[in-house]
Specification:
- This protein is an alpha/beta fold and 340 residues long.
- The chain has 13 helices and 12 strands.
- A 6-stranded parallel β-sheet has the order 2-1-3-4-5-11, sandwiched between helices. A 6-stranded mixed β-sheet has the order 7-6-8-9-10-12, with helices on both faces.
- The longest helix is centred in the middle third of the chain and has 16 residues.
């Protein structure tokens, strides 16, 4: 005969309490007296009783699952964010479910809709499209804590962002100090936080030095590698090309380097270069590529804790915007313009 599996009735009988009391102990109810709670816990231990996790989740209206929706989870820099967020949530008893949106607005909306009706207990999301219209309506109707990753909108959610404005300003000012006056900035749309913040930092640096940036050199269209390739190829084909480029997107660097090589340009001999985030590519390039970087581990830990504050720790206050500092490291690809 197989082993007899103890039931909640057995626990109640051994502890000398009702089934309802055992259920309240299993669900963490605060009103259970310490003496009775101990009796139930002792009975559970004696019987080696394993509660039905699915039933408890249904009663508590919790799945112990957090959804994470990102544009492209294959981007190396996001590994630190995902691993740290996973560790923080795991310690609190939650699992992390990761989805890839491919940067498509309708797919982002569909992924959010799939989490409706209590499918998850919270969402971490870094959308590639502005949150407005149907997108925002779907988010509001989820009724679970939502934390935006590197986005400062909508303002009714908690947000964790990197200080791209300050980092880009420092990088631009460093290039100007080396003698560059024709600096190009490649980044995403200004309607999204990183793109808008980088453009503001870029313009502020020029203004502080009494310089006018070349309008054609500010290309705020996309964060993607292919766009980086097309943009840099076009810029370097101009009669008066830029002497320095700031690649403002964590996935853009391969495309930027490929375009420079196709055009027969060498970094940094022909063109100085600053990338967003530290990667194997930025470190293995000779010389190592200058970067504006920030801690993805800190972003992951902060985002997970903001969500747990609302889900576990009773915080129901105003939405919070947390800014993670950036660091500019010149490395070897920021040099004076050729011929200077």
């Amino acid at each position: 005969m197989g082993k007899i599996v103890p039931t909640i009735r057995d626990v109640a009988r051994i502890a000398g309490v009702s089934i309802g009391t055992v259920s309240r102990v299993l669900n963490g109810a605060a009103e259970v007296k310490p003496r009775i709670r101990k009796a139930v816990e002792d009975a559970i231990k004696e019987l080696d009783y394993v509660p039905n996790a699915a039933a408890i989740s249904m009663r508590k209206r919790r799945t112990r699952t957090i959804a994470c929706i990102m544009r492209d989870i294959s981007i190396p820099q996001l590994g630190g964010f995902i691993s740290t967020a996973h560790n923080v949530l795991s310690e609190a008893g939650y699992s992390l479910m990761i989805s890839n949106s491919e940067g498509k607005r309708q797919r982002e909306i569909e992924l959010l809709k799939s989490q409706a009706n209590g499918q998850v207990d919270g969402i971490l999301i870094g959308p590639y499209t502005p949150v407005e219209g149907e997108f925002e309506e779907v988010m509001r109707n989820l009724n679970v804590p939502i934390v935006m990753i590197d986005r400062d909108k909508p303002t009714w959610t908690d947000c964790v962002v990197a200080d791209h404005e300050s980092g880009t300003r420092r990088a631009t000012e460093h290039l100007i100090s080396l003698g560059h006056t024709r600096i190009a900035l490649l980044t995403g749309p200004t309607s999204l936080f990183p793109g808008g913040a980088r453009v503001r930092g870029f313009l502020a640096a020029h203004e502080a030095h009494g310089l006018e940036p070349v309008p054609e050199f500010i290309v705020a269209q996309s964060f993607l590698s292919d766009q980086g390739y097309r943009t840099v190829s076009a810029l370097l084909g101009m009669k008066s090309p830029p002497t320095a480029i700031i690649s403002g997107g964590v996935a853009m660097l391969p495309g930027v380097l490929r375009a420079a090589r196709t055009r027969g340009k060498s970094v940094p001999e022909d063109i100085s270069l600053v990338a967003a985030g530290v990667t194997d590519l930025s470190e293995l390039h000779q010389p190592p590529i200058a970067t504006v970087s920030w801690s993805q581990h800190e972003v992951g830990a902060t985002a997970a804790n903001l969500l747990l504050d609302r889900r576990e720790r009773g915080y129901d206050g105003e939405p919070r915007l947390v800014i993670i500092p950036t660091e500019f490291s010149p490395q070897g690809t920021c040099v004076p313009p050729k011929g200077r």
